[in-house]
Amino acid sequence: MSKQTAVEFLAKSLKDFPHIKHSFRFKELVEQAKEMEKEQIVDAHYQGYREAIGTTEVSEHYYNETYGGNK
Questions:
Q1: Where in the chain are the domains?
Q2: Tens digits of residue pLDDT in 48-70
Q3: Reported pTM
Q4: What would the pLDDT profile of 23-40 be if each residue is shown by its tens digit?
């Protein structure tokens, strides 16, 4: 079972508000925020382990295993 990111939590919580849920940009903004959050998580993981892992590929794998990849 993968963990839920802060952006995923917020998006699910906001779906309870009809005026936000039906906003034409809601899905677009959520997807943009998820991509930004993923980049931050991968970068933070890489910065912590770059000496040992060498590339961001391992950090991408960490993200996908921990958060279930691109949703």
A1: 6-67
A2: 887 777 778 888 998 999 998 75
A3: 0.72
A4: 778 888 999 999 999 999
For the chain, the first-to-last Cα distance in angstroms comes to: 14
Closest CA to 43 of 20, 18, 60: 60
**Closest listed residue to residue 33, CA positions, set 70, 7, 3:** 7
Q: What is the DSSP string of the chain?
A: -PPPPHHHHHHHHHTTSHHHHT-TTHHHHHHHHHHHHHHHHHHHHHHHHHHHH-STHHHHHHHHHHH-S--
